[in-house]
Task: structure prediction
Amino acid sequence: MTASPTSMLSTQDELLWRRFTAVLATVPAALDERLRDVTGLNHHQFSILAMLASRPDRTLQMANVAKATDSSLSRLSHTVTKLEAAGLVTRRTCDHDRRASWAVLTDQGLAVVADASDKYDALKREVLVDRVPEQVRPQLTALLTALLPDAVAEQCTEFDADLTR
Result:
């Protein structure tokens, strides 16, 4: 049985696709709206700050931030410029490669992450965690990882080291 006379997908596969696109269309907007209420930042901006906050030295090479957030360097540069203007991040040129630069979380940026941490965790619970039965979470995590581009999945695995030690 197929979803429509012209579709090569089964009904179940078409339902899966429709739910996936519904999640892509609604969840990011909801996260942006809710995080703006809490921090004044959109989800992409806050994710960058949170990622830098998770690093021991609050520093990460811009190319690695771009990979981990699945951003182009252009989009990331634009976003970091806004975060710099707000005093939340600074950029530093890489000593061993003048073409590369580092994103560094400022004390003010760390304070934003710390102040929003509990509210952000509550938002993560509301949007995803509490909606997924606990026994299914490891499989869903593996499935979501499998959906990522390989470079992003590898980068995520590196960043997840703080949770898996």
About this structure: The radius of gyration is 18 Å. The longest strand covers residues 89-93.
